[in-house]
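Subject: sequence -> structure tokens, single chain

Hey, anyone have a minute? Need the predicted structure for the following. Not urgent.
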Amino acid sequence: MGSVTVISDSQFESEVLKAELPVLVYLWAAWCGPCRLVSPSIDWIATNYADRVKVVKMEIDPNPETVKAYKVEGVPAIRLFKGDEVVHSWEGAISKAKLTTMLDSNL
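Reply:
Had a minute. Here:
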């Protein structure tokens, strides 16, 4: 059973860019209402796609380096990485159905 790994800027390279599986990076903020709506879907993905994708969660406010490097302009934001390449990017609330469709077409 998979789980969401909480990371910071200092862990980004080792946890995301050097991961063996593709990585779904979920960027969020404590003050973000839509983030609270998306979080259960992220947890569901972590459990149900554990064999195909690693899921990490990063709060944007304490991690400005990653936010700047990957041009995060709004939250919630999702970046799907394969190695050090972003293969899909999304900003704003996303339904579980759209999230699974995006993953299925990119994994």
